TrEMBL record:
InterPro entries for this protein: 2Fe-2S_ferredoxin-like_sf, 2Fe-2S_ferredoxin-type, 2Fe2S_fd_BS, Beta-grasp_dom_sf, FAD-bd_FR_type, FNR_nucleotide-bd, MRET, Riboflavin_synthase-like_b-brl
Keyword Flavoprotein: yes
MF (Gene Ontology): 2 iron, 2 sulfur cluster binding; metal ion binding; oxidoreductase activity
Organism: Streptomyces sp. NBC_00180
Pfam families in the record: Fer2
Coiled-coil residue spans: none
Cofactor entry: FAD
PANTHER family: CARNITINE MONOOXYGENASE REDUCTASE SUBUNIT (PTHR47354:SF1), NADH OXIDOREDUCTASE HCR (PTHR47354)
Oxidoreductase in keyword set: yes
Protein's UniProt name: PDR/VanB family oxidoreductase
Record-linked SUPFAM superfamilies: 2Fe-2S ferredoxin-like, Ferredoxin reductase-like, C-terminal NADP-linked domain, Riboflavin synthase domain-like
Length: 341
């Protein structure tokens, strides 16, 4: 009997340990590193979901819309996006453009970028109905703020986070939209946008817009939301410093050259002014994990032991930034960093 009792105790302890280990892996995306503290800004990263692609549809020239179905999906608010893990393992971010109240599916859209880094081409050419994709989120860095009136500026595929905002605006609120694109055929959801505007709230511009004229009379107190190519967002930000922006490409990662010590590897590297920490590290440690190379997915997050970081990512919280960085986009503020690599 004592032996049976001992075996039962050992088996119970093993079961509890396995459950604890499973929980640890789920709550820490970088396990076996310790789970990071509760964030002081932003939100914790969401657990991954496996969703079925039930629609793969071209909704404008060079723009594909995906419908991803599941069960009891987390709710979201206008401006939110998903991290989508593509079949190759690449992680890309796409704004949700469907109905926030629909807990059975998510809708995203992406434009083909022929000379990009491969993510959009993979969605257009390899993702098909019937496939399953892993997604993480939703997360929202671009919420619709409360205001007495609104001005929206969208460039091309930048309409995707703004479309749910337009649908969610309360009746009677003042708003207008400047929607820019190469031509009408390339502008997704244009017909719906024009219907929402009722004919006088939406200005459609084919080609480069004259912001000085089109945004000359923005009312005081209006909230300005903008998403589109970097040049358009920079121009809007120059006119309206308080504009709310959504970026899916990182701010420039260029800067001065600096040194990075890899403490566990015993190596010291030079990061040139026109390169990244990730590129320098992978030249010496080619198995270093990475994915998006844009400061969004968190795959390349590394612990910082010494030095001040110029954080240029769109993901880490204040607590995480105190002792780690995304080496694909962030740099040193001084001339040296020490990483736990």
């Amino acid at each position: 009997m004592p032996k049976l009792r001992t075996l039962a105790v050992v088996a119970g302890a093993a079961l509890l340990a396995r459950r604890a280990m499973r929980h640890r892996i789920q709550v820490s995306p970088l396990w076996p590193m310790p789970a990071l503290d509760e964030p002081t800004s932003g939100r914790p990263r969401s657990r991954a979901l496996r969703l079925l692609v039930t629609s793969h549809e071209e909704v404008a020239e060079g723009v594909v819309q995906l419908r991803l179905e599941g069960h009891h999906l987390p709710r979201w608010e206008p401006g939110a996006h998903l991290d989508v893990v593509l079949p190759s393992g690449l992680v890309r971010q796409y704004s949700l453009c469907g109905d926030p109240e629909d807990t059975s599916s998510y809708t995203v859209a992406t434009r083909l970028v022929p000379d990009g880094r491969g993510g959009s081409r993979e969605v257009h050419e390899q993702v098909r109905e019937g496939m399953e994709l892993e997604v993480r989120g939703p997360r929202n860095r671009f919420p619709l703020v409360a205001a007495s009136s609104y001005v929206f500026v969208a460039g091309g595929i930048g309409i995707t986070p703004i479309l749910p905002m337009l649908r969610a605006l309360p009746d009677g609120v003042e708003w207008r939209l400047l929607y820019c694109g190469r031509d009408r055929a390339s502008m997704p959801f244009l017909e719906e946008v024009e219907k929402l505007g009722g004919g006088d709230r939406v200005t459609v511009v084919e080609g480069p817009p004259d912001l000085g004229v089109l945004l000359a009379d923005v009312p005081d107190g209006a909230a300005v939301h903008c998403c589109g190519p970097e040049g358009l967002m920079a121009a809007v930000e120059e006119r309206f410093p308080g504009v709310h922006l959504e970026r899916f490409t990182p701010r420039s990662s260029a800067g001065g050259a600096f040194e990075v010590e890899l403490r566990r590897s015993g190596r010291t590297l030079t990061v040139p002014a026109d390169s990244t920490v990730l590129a320098a590290v992978r030249a010496q440690l080619p198995d270093t994990a990475y994915s998006c190379e844009q400061g969004f997915c968190g795959t390349c997050q590394q612990r910082v032991l010494e030095g001040e970081v110029d954080h240029r990512d769109e993901l880490l919280t204040d607590a995480e930034r105190s002792d780690s960085m995304l080496i694909c986009v962030s740099r040193a503020r001084g001339d040296r960093l020490v990483l736990d690599l």
